[in-house]
Design goal:
By secondary structure, the protein is of the alpha/beta class. It contains seven helices and six strands. Strands 3-4-2-1-5-6 form a six-stranded parallel beta sheet, sandwiched between helices. Helix 4 links the parallel strand 3 and strand 4.
Length: 242
């Protein structure tokens, strides 16, 4: 687990975003939820590009939770098509901008064509050295932690790890996000005041920033506002600052 930088008053190394409000945004315009998701995808490109320009190390986007499978089949199919189209369309843009792409979440249950395209995009951008773009797709933080516990238990049972040696770092090393710094800033759109089973272990010390703006309307100006607010905060990590 990468420890937070307590001395850097500048920009966050890792920004995590809960992209919420696509459906409500569309409903207020008398449109379908799929229309909202398509416009939400357009907002993604601008934010990814800006984070890359600013030198942010990691941007993690909460795109589809395991709980989202409860939604209507029509909406799920539209989302899967959208993911496929996005990965195909943006792959060259990622490479040109040195953006490394990875996915966190379970692969089981995702359509085969999505899994295949995820593999292609991950491989094509694996040598990029700029922003790491993390797509949380078919993701659940509780499932992630459960998977980590199972993996550690199997190693302990096989004698590969001493139970007494299991600490926070060992747990972090078995999460989907192993090797990435923990989020410094968590942004949630659409005004909801909850974290929705998102990176529960990793956001222990993240600064939270919530806006009433729906995700399709979230712009670089909103991101700048969140970053300005972040730089004014004092991160103490349980300590007392003079």
């Amino acid at each position: 687990m990468t420890q937070p930088d307590e001395t850097n008053p500048g920009l966050p190394r890792h920004i995590a975003i809960i992209m919420d409000g696509n459906g409500r945004w569309a409903a207020e315009q008398g449109k379908s939820r799929s229309f909202g998701h398509r416009n939400g995808a357009r907002a993604v490109r601008a934010i990814v590009t800006e984070c890359a320009r600013l030198g942010i190390e990691v941007l993690t986007l909460y795109s589809f939770s395991m709980e989202n499978w409860k939604r209507p089949r029509e909406e799920i199919d539209a989302l899967m098509t959208l993911y496929l189209d996005y990965l195909v369309a943006e792959e060259r843009e990622m490479i040109d901008n040195q953006i490394r792409f990875i996915q966190i979440g379970r692969r089981d249950g995702l359509p085969e064509e999505i899994q295949a395209q995820l593999d292609r995009t991950i491989a094509a951008t694996s040598r990029c050295t700029g922003l790491t773009l993390v797509l949380a797709l078919n993701y659940s933080s509780r499932t992630e932690i459960t998977d980590a516990v199972r993996a550690i238990a199997r190693k302990a049972q096989a004698g590969e790890i001493d139970v007494n040696a299991i600490d926070e770092q060992v747990v972090a090393d078995h999460l989907y996000t192993a090797g990435l710094p923990d989020p410094d800033l968590l942004i949630r759109t659409a005004g909801e005041m909850r974290v929705s089973n998102y990176l529960l272990w990793q956001i222990s010390y993240a600064e939270l920033w919530v806006t009433d703006t729906y995700w399709p309307d979230f712009t670089v100006d909103h991101l700048s506002e969140a970053l300005r607010d972040y730089t004014r905060r004092q991160r103490r990590f349980g300590d007392v600052k003079p």
